[in-house]
Structure formats: C-alpha cells, structure tokens
Design goal:
six-stranded mixed sheet, 41% helix
Amino acid sequence: MTTSAAAPVRLIYVDDSGAGSSGIVAYSWVSISADQWREGLQEVLDWRAWMRDSYGIPKNYELHMTKFANGRGNPSTFEDGWNRSKANRSLVLDETFARFGKWSWLGSGTIFARTTARRQAYRDERERVYRELVGTLERELASAGEWGLIYMDGDGTDQIYRRAHRDLEVESRRILEDPSFQHSHLSQWIQIADIVAYAAYQNVLALPQKKFAWKWWPTLDPTGTRTHDVS
C-alpha cells in the first residue's frame, strides 16, 4: 500500500495487566486520532469535572485502578465514610464506563494470553504478547491508512517494548518510533488506559469476588471483537 505523509496519526495509550499468579498476560489500549485530540481532551476534562462535582474526586487525583476499585486511598473529599465504601467507587466506575461508551472517538482493545509460565518464562511471555499487540495494531493501522504512536506508563527501562518496535519492517511499518513513556500521574490518557486495562483484565479473569467489575469492559466491547486471545 502506498503511504502518505498526510495520513492521519492515531495516538495509542497502552497499559499492561496480569500476573504470573493469575496465569494471564494482558495489554489493553485506548486510542484517538490526532485530529480529534482536542475534542477528546475536552470530554476527558469534562468527565473529571463531573467526578469532582458529583463525588468530590479532584481533577488532579491520580486514578489508579488497583487502588481505586479495591477501596484503597482517599480519592474523595466527601466525608461520612465515602472513601471506605467500595459500592461508592463501583458506582463511579459504572457511570464512567457509560460515559466512555458514548465517546465515538475512543478506540479500544485488549490482547491477552493464559499461561503457566513463571519468572523469566513469564517475562518472555509478556514480550511475546506485546509483540502480538504490536502486530495487531500494525494491521489495524494499515487497514485504516493511519500512522500510530504508542504511549505507555513507566520510565522506559524495560527493553522488551523497544525491541518489538525495532524488529518491525521499516518499509511497511505503521507504528512510528519506539514507545514513548509517561508516568500516569502526569497523563489523563494513561490513567484512562489503566482504567480500561483493569476492566478488560477483570472481564477475562472473571473472579467471582470481582463480579461487580465484569460488566465494564463489555461496555466498550459489546460484541467481543476487540478482545484478542493469543494463548
């Protein structure tokens, strides 16, 4: 396919989930076309303003799902025990995913594998699944005639991500550059990727004690076509 410098650029925000103890490796993403970024950012800021006004959660509070969904920390300025209620937090997330589902500009997906690997073998599986993610995104970008830039939480010290990008064929690749890294407390987009990754992971893991979280990911993937099992 002939490429063009004028082709749209898609910004892709990736977060990992899973653990050797759960037997799952997963990567999830949210994305937005660069020409819709300002519109999307305004809706993101409106969402955070809604959380502040409705639930007392400041706009600059870092939403980290392993803490927020599990009742840790003190996200809300409300008193009367709001922060100690997991039901309150679940309600916030129910309404958040209803909002996400209305964002027509928001792309999303998840890719995962089930594994019995541990230690270095688990790390190797993480690299393999990330390569599957990159391949999936490459195909989607090529089909849409887009370029892509990947952003991830962290400091970039884990080399498995950079290797996957540098092994792409230069003449056909659609993902530009190595992944860029941002700490989640500095990026609303990375925090949204974390929220979506947690929801997708809980949907795949399906622990009975986390049943309250099963429904969030299907809000974004009602047909299951954005969930890729690469076991």
